[in-house]
Amino acid sequence: MGIVTLLTDWGNRSPLLASxxxxxxxxxxxxxxxxxxxxxxxxxxxxxxxxxxxIYKNFPEKTIHFIGIDKIAEDKNESSEKSYxxxxxxxxxxxxLDSGFFSLVFDEKPKNMVRVGIEKSxxxxxFNIELVKYISSVLADGDIYDLGDKTxxxxxxxxxxxxxxxxxxxxASIIHVDDFGNVVTNIKRKFFEKVAAGRNFIIAIRKNExxxxxxxxxxxxxxxxxxxxxxxxNDYLEIALNQGNASGLFGINVDSxxxxxxxxx
Length: 265
What we know:
Layout: E1 3-8, H1 15-27, E2 32-37, H2 45-53, E3 64-68, E4 81-89, E5 92-97, H3 101-105, E6 112-119, H4 120-141, E7 149-150, E8 163-165, E9 169-177, E10 183-188, H5 189-196, E11 200-205, E12 210-212, E13 227-231, E14 236-241, H6 246-250, E15 257-263
Parallel strand pairs: 1-2, 1-3, 3-5
Antiparallel strand pairs: 4-5, 4-6, 6-7, 8-9, 9-10, 9-15, 10-14, 11-12, 11-15, 13-14
């Protein structure tokens, strides 16, 4: 039995989801489908990559992950094809548009990748059939190299990653707000610790209107309604209010900026 996960920005009412599943079941009737999420904000590869990067390693070997999130077109004449990347990594398979998504999920570029181009004239009416063909082929024999041309590159979105200035400041963004109003930044623990190098710091929110000078392990290590900064279960720097709504209080949301300044003890 093969496992196929689906992560898209298509919404829960799109007939494409049922169509893709039905066509795959014609080819592989014992396929198990896992719907990760279909209400990702449109074209939001940053939030999608945060969600996906935190869960894909929990799936068994040979799982096939389909990511149906396109990038915002930057040039109406950019290409006559839709370009898909098919990846084999960590004994799992990944199929998705070359949107920059994979550069935000993987710290290192995978070695086993192929590129598949689908003509837009075909994509418009039959993309689900083409997609089913690729997924069914991987389910059948796990060989990606018969499906496209080997490639070593995909679109990289460096501008979505935190920036270090003069080794004393990290400029970062909010990439996720959960249902409690906790805000997650794009700063990972290893990155933070490397830049910090043992120095003290100030996390500045809204041009230093709010600031934090200490990290904690959990929310309840501060009093109720106090600001707290932790590295969450996925090792991202998270800012919260103990039993409160940080996003609402600070007036910040996805894409809002924060700054971390480091100084000697």
